[in-house]
Write a structure and sequence with these properties.
The protein is an alpha+beta fold. It is 22% helix and 15% strand. The strands form 2 sheets. Strands 1-4 form a two-stranded parallel ribbon. Strands 2-3 form a two-stranded antiparallel ribbon. The radius of gyration is 20 Å and the shape is extended.
Length: 154
């Protein structure tokens, strides 16, 4: 068995925040793609602010996706809600995280090997669970994408 590792010198550092990301057009493009997808999927509706709710802020997170040889595949920006500002039994009642257990992965790999099946990997740009929230979540508008007609809306 011949195993080796190739280390690449990475000059494409991910920005730590939105302000750093604005300095490079490729991160602006990545944010625009993410924002456009969120809007296309009807992720939210802008409404006037009210004083009786907990406002969850959001931020951009950046990641450079790489190919197996270390070269850049694409630049990914994700908008995430800072959910730790939410209060149990007020802002939410249940939590859910769709995660594959390692045991399931091992079983699938074992079955594929035993049958001689070919395995392929898939990277999905945006995944949306088609669930409906019973609670209303009020989130600030994304940095860099504030509606100019309604800048105070949430």
């Amino acid at each position: 068995m011949n195993l080796h590792t190739q280390l690449t010198n990475c000059h494409n550092h991910e920005p730590a925040n939105f302000t750093q990301a604005l300095k490079d057009h490729k991160w602006g493009q990545a944010m625009s793609e993410e924002y456009d997808t969120l809007v296309r999927n009807g992720t939210w509706a802008l409404i006037p602010p009210a004083s009786n709710y907990n406002l969850v802020v959001c931020k951009w997170v950046f990641h450079t996706k790489r190919k197996f040889d270390g070269s850049v595949d694409r630049f990914k920006a994700r908008l995430i809600a800072k959910g730790f500002h939410q209060r149990p039994e007020i802002d939410y009642h249940d939590t859910f995280s769709l995660v594959v257990k390692p045991t399931t992965v091992r079983i699938v790999l074992s079955i594929a090997v035993s049958h001689g099946w070919t395995l392929r990997q898939l990277d999905v740009n945006n995944v949306f669970l088609q669930g409906h929230l019973s609670e209303n979540v009020y989130m600030s508008q994304p940095p860099g994408f504030v509606d100019i007609d309604h800048p105070s809306y949430v």
